[in-house]
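Example for tutorial group B:
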C-alpha cells in the first residue's frame, strides 16, 4: 500500500462516524471496492459490530473530550498560544500555494483534512507538513494505543507514513521554506514551513 493510499484510508475512517461509515463497515470483505489494509479491516469490523450511536459517543469521548487525542494538530504543537493562529494561517496559505482549496468547514489542521491533502500534495508540501506534524500524530497514536482504542492502529499507520515522508525531504527550494512568501514570514517555526 502506498503512503497516499494509507493517508486516504485513515482520512476516511477517522472522520466522525456516520451512515456512510456504517455502510462501508457492513460491506463484506469481498464486496469492498479495493483491498483493505489489515488495520482498516479491523476497524471496519469493529464499526460493523458497534451501533452507530455508540460509535459516535466513543468518537466524541476519544477525540473531542480528550486533549491528548485532539485531532487539531496545531493544538499539540502550539497549544492555545497566539502562534497557533499564525500556524493555521500559514497552513491555509500552504494549501493555497499547493493548488488545493480545502472544503468542508474544518480548520486546516484537522488531521483527516491534513491526511487528504498529504495524499495529493506536492512532495515539498507533504514534507513540510509531515516534518511539523508527524510527532503530534505519533503522540496521538501512542495515547490511543495506551487506551486500547479501536482507532489506535489507523493512527499508528498514519503517523508511520507521516514519519516516512518527512526525513531526507528536500523542500528547501520552495519559497515558503526560503522565507520568500508571506506565509513564510508569518510562520512561528522557521525551520519548516508551518
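The residue assignment follows.
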Amino acid at each position: 500500500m502506498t503512503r497516499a493510499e494509507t493517508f486516504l484510508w485513515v482520512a476516511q475512517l477517522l472522520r466522525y462516524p456516520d451512515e456512510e461509515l456504517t455502510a462501508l463497515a457492513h460491506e463484506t470483505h469481498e464486496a469492498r471496492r479495493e483491498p483493505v489494509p489489515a488495520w482498516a479491516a479491523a476497524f471496519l469490523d469493529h464499526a460493523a459490530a458497534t451501533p452507530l450511536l455508540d460509535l459516535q459517543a466513543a468518537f466524541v469521548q476519544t477525540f473531542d473530550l480528550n486533549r491528548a487525542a485532539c485531532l487539531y494538530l496545531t493544538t499539540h504543537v502550539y497549544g492555545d498560544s497566539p502562534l497557533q493562529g499564525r500556524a493555521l494561517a500559514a497552513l491555509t496559505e500552504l494549501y493555497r500555494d499547493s493548488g488545493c482549496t480545502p472544503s468542508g468547514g474544518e480548520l486546516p489542521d484537522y488531521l483527516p483534512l491534513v491526511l487528504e491533502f498529504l495524499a495529493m500534495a506536492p512532495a515539498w508540501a507533504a514534507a513540510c507538513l509531515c516534518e511539523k506534524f508527524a510527532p503530534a500524530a505519533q503522540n496521538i497514536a501512542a495515547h490511543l494505543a495506551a487506551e486500547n482504542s479501536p482507532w489506535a492502529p489507523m493512527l499508528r499507520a498514519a503517523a508511520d507514513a507521516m514519519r516516512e515522508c518527512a526525513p531526507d525531504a528536500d523542500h528547501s527550494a520552495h519559497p515558503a521554506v526560503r522565507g520568500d512568501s508571506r506565509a513564510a514570514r508569518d510562520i512561528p517555526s522557521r525551520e519548516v514551513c508551518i
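The chain has eleven helices and no strands. Compare this with the pattern of hydrophobic and polar residues in the output above.
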